[in-house]
Write a structure and sequence with these properties.
With about 575 residues, this protein is an alpha/beta fold. The chain has four domains: about 5-150, DNA polymerase, domain 1 (Orthogonal Bundle), CATH 1.10.150.110; about 155-245, Beta Polymerase, domain 2 (2-Layer Sandwich), CATH 3.30.460.10; about 250-320, DNA polymerase, thumb domain (Beta Polymerase, domain 3, 2-Layer Sandwich), CATH 3.30.210.10; about 330-565, Metal-dependent hydrolases (TIM Barrel, Alpha-Beta Barrel). It is built from 24 helices and 17 strands. Strand 6 (about 230-235) and strand 7 (about 240-245) form a beta hairpin. The two termini are about 40 Å apart. The relative contact order is 0.07. It binds one DNA strand of 29 nucleotides through helix 2, helix 4, helix 7, helix 9 and strand 6. Keywords: Exonuclease, Hydrolase, Nuclease.
Length: about 575
DNA sequence: GCCGTTTTCGGCCCGACTGTTTTCAGTCG
């Protein structure tokens, strides 16, 4: 049983308990445990076998014994029995906007409806109207919720939120009726996928802001409109929320709406221990406001360093901020060059020289060329002959652009048996090699892990490309033991790629802190197939920051001479 | 279900909006 399976079960128990109308705090104990497990980097099997789970805060007697049972036997009697008492469809109904556990249970108990299809049928035949507190409006709202669930239950890649968010901000700022205005929520925290866009505004005319926001031409539907808060669905199905506060409340509100929920809960808990009440309107000691002019001031009230939004995931940032141990996060400006770029030798659309010129314009001082290797026929992988030709061209270009360095690389397929794609003589001819899996994705976990570890231990391999192969919102990563891969990379001095393509963002930031603590190095790479895709770099920086990475953890902050020495 | 430097019981973060009802429950973030 893997950690992620355990996390899933704990979360599901939380949902089931909510549906059953149990004490909400009991549900929350399960959610909290699931969240904690996600943060804990240590192997869950080890924690259980060494009886250390119970010493972690949030894991009391009951949870410890239940998780132990799950880890050792693969089953949990409590969960199995609990599942039997709640029809499966009710859990998925929770994902319909406007429906919570109470309403779902009322519908189920009175009408026996236990699927979304059944619910739709019941609404259409007006069978809900006899229930207490269910009117025509409630029914219409549920139908709307079902429609939205079917159409828009998905999340969105970060760049979509980035574009829509900045347009909305520009529009609101241009009105002249707001003082401060910025994106909050997961957009500000630079999450790799977003559910919605949160916008915070300070203004003396909240009613006008509400009208302004809800009348933007992006808005397809207004789902809520109050005095200081409105919610809309945009044309592409993404939700957007706006909140207005007075300018003096803005810093507190900005922190509040930036979240994450887990970070806020943890900080409020800490505040409460110090006798401070914390909400979106302020920090209060004995009902007296503690004046803060910006977010920095808020953290200073708690004798903490400022926590950048990217880190606010309750992954240990609060403790680190208390102990002056927060990382100095890597920035865009730190990056001195890029690797993992494809040219028109394989499936890229630019020439090597076009890439060079663009890199120089962006202020980079080196470029690693890595076209696909010969097995990747679908992507025009390079034959030995192509490689020779490309290397000759690179030699000439290195002479022409003598202040710039072009490194000869290849993105070699990691073949199903774990070997790289050329013989040793050819492998030797490169300055560096990225190894990536592009085929036979469906291997069983052990086999896949061993395949990749074998490649990592190949002395010619320098970088592990998109380590898990995931495509955000469309394809799960291949089944691998990430911990073992990280271990192998560390032992063999193989650099972990942070693939900055916003559809990948792979390695996942949740693994970075652990890998960094183990001693691993990272490279942030655009995986560019065109000049335009060098723009991807900033998404890679975003997640590197979320993964607590500092300049010293990343190799493409090195200057031209240092990077040449690095691969020697 | 968890937790405790006032606590082993009684809390557990907090407020806006909606809809239904006329004082509040449910949902959401």
């Amino acid at each position: 049983m893997t950690k992620s399976e355990i996390i899933k079960i704990l979360n599901e128990i939380g949902l089931l308990l909510e549906l059953k109308g149990e004490n909400f705090f009991k549900s929350r104990a399960y959610y909290d445990a699931a969240n904690k497990l996600e943060v804990i980097q240590e192997d869950i099997q080890t924690l259980v076998s060494e009886n250390r789970l119970g010493s972690i805060k949030g894991f009391g007697k009951a949870l410890t014994s239940k998780i132990t049972e799950l880890v050792t036997t693969g089953e949990m009697e409590y969960y199995t029995k609990l599942k039997e008492t709640v029809p499966k469809g009710l859990v998925s109904m929770l994902r319909i906007s406007g429906l919570g556990p109470k309403k779902i249970m009322t519908i189920y108990k009175s009408l026996g409806v236990s699927t979304i299809e059944g619910l739709k049928e019941a609404c259409e035949n007006n069978r809900l109207l006899d229930l207490p507190r269910f009117s025509k409006k409630t029914k219409d709202k549920i139908l709307e919720g079902i429609k939205n669930y079917n159409e828009y239950s998905e999340k969105f890649h970060y760049p979509i939120g980035e574009v829509l968010g900045s347009e909305l901000l520009k529009y609101i700022k241009a009105s002249g009726i707001v003082q401060r205005c910025e994106a909050a929520g997961s957009l500000r925290r630079k999450k790799e996928v977003l559910k919605d866009i949160d916008i915070l505004v300070s203004s003396d005319e909240p009613d006008k802001v509400m009208d302004l926001f809800t009348s933007h031409y992006y808005v397809k539907e207004i789902t809520g409109k109050g005095e200081t808060k409105s919610s809309v669905v945009l044309q592409n199905g993404m939700n957007a929320d706006i909140r207005v506060v007075s300018d003096s409340q803005y810093p507190y509100a900005l922190h509040h709406f930036t979240g994450s929920k887990e970070h806020n809960t943890a900080l409020r808990h800490l505040a409460k221990k110090q006798g401070i009440k914390m909400n979106e309107y302020g920090l209060f000691k004995d009902d007296e406001l503690i004046i803060c002019h910006n977010e920095e001031d808020i953290f200073h009230v708690f004798s903490m360093d400022y926590i950048p939004p990217e880190l606010r995931e309750n992954y240990g940032e609060i403790e680190a901020a208390e102990n002056n141990e927060l990382p100095v996060l890597v920035t865009n400006e730190d990056i001195k060059g890029v690797f993992h770029t494809h040219t028109n030798y394989s499936d890229g659309n630019a020439t090597i020289e076009q890439l060079i010129i663009d890199c120089i314009n962006r202020g980079y001082s080196y470029l690693g060329i890595t076209d696909h290797s010969k097995t990747a026929i679908y992507a025009g992988g390079l034959t030995e002959e192509d490689i020779k030709r490309q290397h000759e061209e690179i030699d000439l270009l290195n002479e022409k652009y003598h202040d710039f360095k072009i490194l000869k690389g290849i993105e070699s397929d990691i073949l199903p048996d774990g070997s790289l794609d050329y013989n040793e003589r050819v492998l030797q001819s490169f300055d560096f090699i990225i190894g990536s899996v592009h085929s036979a994705f469906k291997m069983e976990q052990n086999k896949m892990t061993n395949r990749i570890i074998k490649a990592i231990s190949n002395p010619y391999m320098n970088i592990l490309g998109h380590p898990t192969g995931r495509l955000l919102l469309s394809r799960e990563g291949y089944k691998i033991d990430v911990e073992q891969i990280i271990e192998a990379c560390n032992e063999n001095s193989v650099v972990l790629e942070i693939n900055a393509n916003p559809y990948r963002l792979d390695l996942d930031w949740r693994h970075m802190k652990n890998a960094k603590e183990k001693g691993c190095k990272f490279v942030i790479s655009p995986d560019a197939h065109s000049i335009k895709e060098f723009d991807y770099m900033r998404y890679g920086i975003n997640v590197a920051r979320k993964g607590w990475l500092e300049k010293s953890d990343v190799i493409n902050v090195l200057n031209k001479d240092e990077i040449v020495r690095y691969f020697m």
